[in-house]
Amino acid sequence: MEATVERFEREYHLPRIKLQTVFSLVVLAVAIHILLPQIGELRHSFNAIKRADANWLPLALVTTALTFIFAAVALRAASCRPLPFVKTVLAQLASSFANRLAPGSVGGLGVNERFLSHAGGMSNAAASTALALNGVAGLVVHMSALVVTAILARGDASEHWPRPHHWQVAAAFALIMVIAGVLWRAPRLRSHIIPALKDGWNELLEILKRPAEAVVLFLGAAGITTSYAVTFYLCLVAFHVHISPAQAAFVYLGGAVVSGVAPTPGGLGAMEAALVAGLTHVGIHDGRAVASVLTFRLLTYWLPILPGYLSLRSLRRAHLL
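^ that's the sequence the OP posted. Answer follows.
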């Protein structure tokens, strides 16, 4: 198995991942799914699951699938290439699988870079620039949405939000993960991250001169963010959590920021803690918060793994990776 992992790393330019790393991720996943219910009290979490309205979950699964479609739309616009749409969607699934193997979306970027090179005929430098543009557009949309929903959520909230005594545990864990992520990325800021952001910003200024392409790019980026936020809200509705859509979106967007900084693949652990802390902070302090978050992560983190792996194999056989 270790030989397979090493071969995968060589082919997709991923950092080295040893079996002990995979084992650590499994342990972290188990710990999160065991310990989080303690914050919301295990008994209340089980009761919330029993009372859940599962009719909302198929719709949440559809909105989860839409994230990959919008991701394909955004990538096609950023690359300015007529990439085959279905194959591009499969590449986004494969990218999500690769992101489960390495933190910081490194795996997904490697897969998309190879896809742009093979399917779009782009050089590595041009592919990297397109990915930087895609990332900056997504960042602009995400942070803009965070500001807007913060204003709307504040208007929806009561004057005094309750402060359950357990919420600080999840908040503290999320904060620790953010600090660890910042320290982990510090050496790469000057050499990789800042230059990529500069390239992406310059390309963004250029694409704004072509309104039609810019609209498609931002629609794709907005579609990804909106689909995830709607999926989160549907999970809350399924567990009878009564907060406004703006509050739900704000909690998700804040959790996604923590997830993006955390030094674990897909923000594993950090996002769960941040979402639970956000929900308890706005007054959902029983098992419904934990059950909703774990269901959301089941749909958006765990379920895409198998389709992503199959997509990666399919693209590899088609010589598109």
